From TrEMBL:
Domain Disease resistance R13L4/SHOC-2-like LRR span(s) in chain numbering: 567-800
One Pfam family here: NB-ARC
Domain NB-ARC, chain residue ranges per copy: 171-344
Keywords: ATP-binding, Coiled coil, Nucleotide-binding, Plant defense, Repeat
Organism: Hevea brasiliensis (Para rubber tree)
Coiled coil location: 35-86
SUPFAM superfamilies: L domain-like, P-loop containing nucleoside triphosphate hydrolases
Gene3D superfamilies noted in UniProt: 1.20.5.4130, P-loop containing nucleotide triphosphate hydrolases, Ribonuclease Inhibitor, Winged helix-like DNA-binding domain superfamily/Winged helix DNA-binding domain
Residue ranges of every copy of the Disease resistance N-terminal domain listed in the record: 10-97
This protein's name: Disease resistance protein RGA3
Amino acid sequence: MADSFLFNVAESVLGKLGSLALKQFSLAWGLESDLEKIKDNLKVIKAVLLDAEQQRSQNPRIEVWLENLKEVLYDAEDVVDEFECEALRRQVVKSGNTTRKVRRLFSSSNPLAFRFRMGHKLKQIRERVTEIAALKSDFGLTEQIFDRHVIHREREMTHSFIDASNVIGREQARDNVIETLLRSVDGENVSIIPIVGIGGIGKTTLAKLVYNDQRIATHFELKLWVCVSDVFELDKVIIKILDSASTGQRYTDMGIDQLQRTLREALNGKKYLLILDDVWSEDPRKWGELKTLLMGGANGSKIVVTTRSQRVAKIMGTVSALNLSLLSLQDCLSLFSKCAFKGQQEKQNPNLKRIGEEIVRKCKGVPLAVITLGSLLYSVTDEREWEFIRDNEIWKLEQKEDDIFAALRLSYEHLPSYLKRCFAYCSIFPKDYEMDDIELVYLWIANGLVQSSNENQELEDFGLRYFKALCSRCFFQDFAEYGGSVGCKMHDLIHDLALSVSINECSMVRTSTQQIPKSVRQISFPYPQSLPNDLPESLQNLDRVQTIWSINERREGISSEVFIKKCVSRFQYMRVLDLTFSGFEVLPTSIGDLKHLKYLSLYGNGLIRRLPNSICELQSLQVLLLGRCWSLEELPKDIKYMINLRWLWITTNQKYLPTGGIGCLKSLRFLFIGWCDNLEYLFEDMQGLKMLRRLFVCFRRSLTSLPQNIKCLMALETLCIDECENLDLAMEEGENNQFPTQFSLQKLELRNLPKLLEFPQWLIQGSTNNLKVMRIGECDNLRELPECLQNMASLQELRITDYPKLNNN
C-alpha cells in the first residue's frame, strides 16, 4: 500500500489531540501529562505504519496489532469529541442572553462526574496507546516515509454530457445501433435491441452516444432513460420510467395497479425510445410483466437494453444482440493519450509514450481501465511514477481474462490516504445512487474525514477539493450541475471497489445479513421499509456506529419509530443520522442525547408535524435537512442555540420566520428555504448570517419581498431564486437606502419569477469583477437586462432562456 489508510486516521487523531478545547480541559484538570504521552507514542507508532501495512498479510500478529491500533484511535476520536461537545455546551450556557429555562436545559447534570469520567477515559487511552507502542518492537518494524509513489495532482472536472469526439473506437457500433433503431420491423410494435459486454467495456457510453445522436432526436416522439441495476422490481422500474417521462409528479405513493395504468397512458400511441441500462435480472417472468406494459407504444418504438449477461440478452431481445468487443490496441493508445498527456507532453517525452503503451497492454482492451489509469497519470512527467504503475505487484495477482479490477485497485492505491478514506465512505450508498457534492462533503466532515491545514480556509472548500480530486481520477462520473451543486454517480465496478476496500469499516444491512464485523462504524439500509421494530440481530454486537444512512431508489426510508428510538438509544456515538424519505410522525425526544451528532436529515418526511425542542440540544450539529417536510408546522423555538449549524434546509407551514431564530446562527454557510407555500416574510435579522455563502429560495407562492438586510450578507457567493410567483425583487435605492449591497456574488440564478419586470441592480451592484455565472430563465415579463453586463470581464457563463418581453424590445 503506497499510502496507509490507518496513517491518515492516526494523523487525524494527533490533530484533534491538539484541539483548543482539550488543551483547556487538560490544563484545568491536570491531564497534560497523559495527553503528551498519548501524542508522543502515536508519533512513534505512525512512523512505522507503512512497514506494518506492508507486512500485515504475511504476519497475523501484525494484523491483530493494527486492528487494535485502529480501535484505540477511533476511541480516542470519540473522547476528544466529548470534550468538544462539552465546550460547545458551556458556550451556550454562558451566553449573555440565556434564560434560566435554557440554562437548565443545557446544564450538565453533574460537572464533577463528567470531569472524573473523562479523566478516567483519557488515562485508559494513554495506557492502551503505550501498550501498543511497546509491542511494535516485537515485529522489527522500520520507519518509512509516507506518500511515496502517491501521485498528487488535480485536473479539471469533466462534464456529464457525452461528447462524441471524446469517445474512441465506437463509431461503427454506434452507427450499427442507430441503423437498427431507424429500421422498421414488420409485425412488431416495439423492438428490443440488447447491447452485451463485460463490465467497463463501454455499454452505457455507447447507449449515451446513440441516445444523444441528432438522428435519434428527430425520429422518436419520446426518449426515456432508466438505469435498472441489479434490482429488477416491477414497481421500481415503472417509477423510474415515469420519472424519465415527466417532471415534478410524484409516483412513489401509487399502488402497483395505478402505476401500471399511468405507464400505459404515458406511452400509449407514442413512438418512443427507451434505454434500459445495466440490466442484471435473468428472471423471464419479471421481464414478461414489464414487457406487457411497454407494448402500447406506436409502431417503430424501440427499447435498448445494456447488460453483461448473454442470458438477459436472449430473454429480452427481439433482434440479435450487439456483442461489444474489446477496444483495439491502437484505439486504447489513443484513448490513453487523451487522458494522460497534457498538450505536447507525449511528443516531448517518447519514454513516457513507450511506458504508457506497456501499461495500456495490461488493460486488455477495456476502456474503463485505460481511462482510470490514464487519468491517474495526467500531467505526471516523472518516469519513475509511470514505471511504478507498470511494474506494480497488483498486476501479478490472479485474475480472470476479462477482469479489470487490478487496474482499478491500482488507481485506488495511488490515492493520498485522506482521499482513500473519503472514497471508501462512498460504499454506504447503493449502486446508481446520485450523490450531491455538498451532501458528500458534509458527510465526510461529520465523520472527521476532512482536515484543514489552513485555519483561514473553510472545511467546505477542502472537502470540495477532495471531491474534485476524486472526480479528476474518474472515481465519479455522470455529472450534472444544478443550483450551484454538482450531482454525480459511481460506475458499478468503481462501487464494487469501494465495497472491497471498506469491508471492515462500512456495511450494507439487509434482512438476510447474519453477521457484521465489530469494527464496522458506518451502516446503511438499502431496504429500510422492511426493517423490523427491534434492532436486527446482526447489529446487536455493534456499539460505536457513526453513520446510519437509509434510502432506496424508490425514495422510501425508515418508517418504524420504535426502530429509530432503539438506534438513538444504542448508538450514542453517531455522527450521521440520515432518515431521508422516512415515514414516521414523531422524532423521539431522546434525539437530544446524541451529543456527537453532526448530520441529521429528515428530508422528504411528509408526516412529521413537530420536532422535539430537545433537538436544539445538539450543539455539535452541523447539518439539519428539513426540506420537503410538507406537514412541519414550525421550526423549533430554540433553534438559535444550534450554534454549530453550517447547512440548514427548511420547509415549513409558518407564515413568517421570527427574528431571534435562524438569524442567530452565525456559523451558517448554506441556507435553503423551499416549498413553504404559506411563508410571506423571511426573518428580518438576516444580517447576522455573516458567514452565509449560498442562499436558495424556491417554490414559495406567498413570498412577496426579500428583507432589505439581505444586502448585508457579506460572504454570499451564490444566490438562487426559483418558482416564487409573487416575489418582487425591486428595492429602494439612493441616499435613504439603509442597506447598501455588501456582497459580491459569483453565481446568480433567477427562474420562474413572473413579477420580475426590470433587472434588480442591487443584486450585482458589488459583483462587477467577481460574477462568473448568471442564469435567467422563464421570467416571462422581464423587459431589460443591466447595462453593466457587457463590462463584466469575470463573467464565464451567461444563459438567458424564455424571455418573450425581452425579445420584443
